[in-house]
Structure formats: structure tokens, C-alpha cells
């Protein structure tokens, strides 16, 4: 039984006139904003009670196996719009973000714990290497959450890895979450930085 089937059954059992189903996920910025503003407002809760509307939350962080394949297929991840390349420079290595048109990734460090910023790690033979990325500030997208500025990286953003001189067997992993200009957020992904062509 998927989220919709459960909501329908519980709505009938509660003798409610309607159901409000909030689809959410840990990686969804819009969801966090709604939860902290609209759904936290006591007037909204009162209106739901007075209208005999039952509220549900369907968490899609890990989709329920009974949900339709079409719904879960729509939940592509950030690797479908983001990649990374690395180049050598005099001070070490630089990772260059490659993003599809109209897509961005959250800058590091993130201003809020639920935003997933770009982070870079280096591994040799599966063991982490010491790394001190020089994350740039990112572009201010004029979005303030809890009085904090949200910044993003755009296509072509360069992140320096001073002192890291890549040798065979070293793998650079870039963890990121993509968001587009219209406010669509994809689940986070880890991409492997490849050498620049």
C-alpha cells in the first residue's frame, strides 16, 4: 500500500472531508521552508481542524517500495545535472564544477544544517587523505532562511585543493545537491571528479 492509499484509508476512518498530504524529503529545501512557516502556523492547524481536513506527511527521502515506479523514477539525483573535473595548478589541484544550464549547487559551508553543501574528499585505496579545500563564497541568490544568506556555486566554479598533488590511485569525490532556477531540488549525490580533457 503506497502513501496515497494509506492517506485515503485513514481519511475515511477519521470521517474527514479531505486529506492534505505533504510530500517531503530530507534534501528538499522547499519542504523545510513550508514546515517552518506554513505548517508551523497555528492558524493553519486551526483551519484544518475546522475544515475536518486530516494532514499526512509522506517522507520520500527513501521512497516507500509500494509507491509507483513512475513516481520513484521521477526522483533522479543530482548526478544527472552535475559533474566535476580536476586540473593541476602550481599550488596543487583545482576541482571545476560542471553543471547543466540553469542548475546550481549549494556553496560550502551551508548556512543551515538541512542544506547540503558541496564537500570534497580525497581517497587513496579507500582511505581518506588529509584535505583542506579552499571553498569560494559562492553567489548570493537573495534567499534568506532564518536570517542567513543562502549561496550557490554555478557552472565553472573552481575549488582549490592546495597542496594536493594527485598521484595514481587517488580519487576525488564531490558530494553535492543540485537546485535549479525554478526552485526544483534534487536528492544529493556523490560524483567522482575526472581529469579535465
Kindly describe this structure:
There is one protein chain. The protein is 17% helix and 39% strand. It has four helices and 14 strands. The chain folds into two domains: 3-73, no CATH class; 78-195, Thiol:disulfide interchange protein DsbD, N-terminal domain (Immunoglobulin-like, Sandwich), CATH 2.60.40. Residues 64-69 have low confidence and may be disordered. A hairpin with a 2-residue loop joins strand 3 (82-89) and strand 4.
What's the assembly state of these chains? single chain
As for the number of domains, it is: 2
Average residue pLDDT: 80
CATH level-four homologous superfamily name of the largest domain: Thiol:disulfide interchange protein DsbD, N-terminal domain
| Gyration radius over CA | 21 Å
Q: Helix amount, in percent?
A: 10-25%
Order of helices and strands: HEHHEHEEEEEEEEEEEE
Summarize the main sheet: 4 strands, mixed
Structural class: alpha+beta
Strand order of the largest sheet: 10-4-3-14
Low-pLDDT sequence parts: 64-69
Number of strands: 14
- What is the rounded distance between the termini? 48 Å
Could you say what the CATH topology of the largest domain is called?
A: Immunoglobulin-like
CATH top level assignment of the largest domain: Mainly Beta
Q: Which CATH architecture of the largest domain is right?
A: Sandwich
Principal-axes geometry comes out as elongated
Strand content: 35-45%
How many H/I helices?
4
